[in-house]
Design goal:
Layout: H1 26-29, E1 47-48, E2 52-53, H2 61-64, H3 79-82, E3 84-88, E4 93-98, H4 109-119, E5 125-130, E6 134-139
Parallel strand pairs: 4-5
Antiparallel strand pairs: 1-2, 3-4, 5-6
């Protein structure tokens, strides 16, 4: 995964006011290949949960180049609160990685609205990854219905 040089959504850029802080959800939800071979939806053995990576300076390239949408102004709620990590793969593809403990988090109004916004950009599809089992793909070739507010 490479860092996107031009913004997917107008105005999206690395935001200093959005540091990771104590959010480590990417360390749980994202799968990482060799040398870590970390499966999706399991905490990385090098993650100090709520604090950060214990091998940050020596972390794999896949971790170094991960593009967290929230840090770039995509989405309103930080991933550790929403339980959804938005990963931008390239200018046409992104993924919503959803914590298996809250499988419907991606259906919240914030993310349904975000899907509508992404559909108006160069983005062609978003893959919804819930835990490590269920996967859905939202293809923007088909029109999306305007999301309804859920009564929670």
């Amino acid at each position: 995964m490479a860092i996107i040089e031009k913004p997917i959504i107008p105005g999206a850029h690395l935001r200093k006011e959005r540091p990771c802080g104590d959010c480590t959800m990417c360390c749980k939800l994202i799968g990482v290949g060799p040398p870590l071979d970390k499966p999706m939806n399991r905490w990385c053995e090098h993650c100090d949960i709520g604090k950060g990576c214990k091998i940050y300076s020596d972390r794999p390239e896949e971790c170094k180049t991960f593009y967290c949408g929230w840090k770039y102004g995509i989405g309103e709620t930080r991933p550790d609160k929403s339980k959804v990590v938005i990963g931008i793969v390239d200018e046409e593809n992104s993924a919503f990685y959803v914590d298996a403990g809250r499988p419907n988090a991606w259906k919240e109004p914030e993310f349904r609205e975000l899907l509508m916004t992404l559909s108006k950009t160069t983005m062609k599809r978003v893959t919804i990854v819930v835990g490590n089992r269920r996967r859905q793909q939202v293809d923007f070739k088909k029109p999306l219905e305007r999301p309804q507010r859920s009564a929670l």
